[in-house]
Design brief:
By secondary structure, the chain is α+β, with helices and mostly antiparallel strands. The protein is built from three helices and eight strands; from the N terminus they run αββαββββββα. A hairpin with a 6-residue loop joins strand 5 and strand 6. The mean pLDDT is 94. It catalyses: 1-(5-phospho-beta-D-ribosyl)-5'-AMP + H2O = 1-(5-phospho-beta-D-ribosyl)-5-[(5-phospho-beta-D-ribosylamino)methylideneamino]imidazole-4-carboxamide; 1-(5-phospho-beta-D-ribosyl)-ATP + H2O = 1-(5-phospho-beta-D-ribosyl)-5'-AMP + diphosphate + H(+).
Length: 135
């Protein structure tokens, strides 16, 4: 879902309220199932590239650089729809996920839950992370 019109992309960016670090939280949701896959951060450059190309791009705080989802693992996200919440300070990226979303090899990063008072994994890895990242 690339947005070809630069003016439309500029309007989306202008409506986005970035925090003091120039970032906005972005939640990725599977377009087919509605499953929440992950949360990451976007800056203006990653948001612009996501809108322009249709490939979801985040900002990696640990690398201090753009993170094109799947650039090392192949587990890309293709944009289906991009939504801004009522306050303009959180993005919902509705995506077509290729493979798993989590670096642990699980479909979703939200795989831990309280069960009988303990935090336990409720989903097993679907792929070995060493295979994803060539380690």
């Amino acid at each position: 879902m690339p947005v070809a019109d630069p003016a439309a992309r500029a309007r989306f960016l202008a409506a986005t309220r970035f925090n003091q670090d120039g970032l906005v939280p972005a939640i990725a949701q599977d377009h087919a199932t509605g499953e929440v896959l992950m949360m990451a951060w976007m800056n203006a450059a990653s948001l612009e590239e996501t809108l322009a190309t249709g490939r979801v791009v985040y900002f990696s705080r640990s690398r201090n650089a753009l993170w094109r989802k799947g650039e090392t693992s192949g587990q890309m996200q293709q944009l289906v729809d991009l939504r801004l919440d009522c306050d303009g300070d959180t993005i919902l990226a509705v995506v077509e996920q290729k493979g798993v979303a989590c670096h642990t090899g699980r479909r979703s990063c939200f795989y831990q839950a309280l069960r009988e008072g303990e935090l336990v994994p409720i989903a097993a890895p679907e792929v070995d992370p060493a295979v994803l990242y060539g380690r």
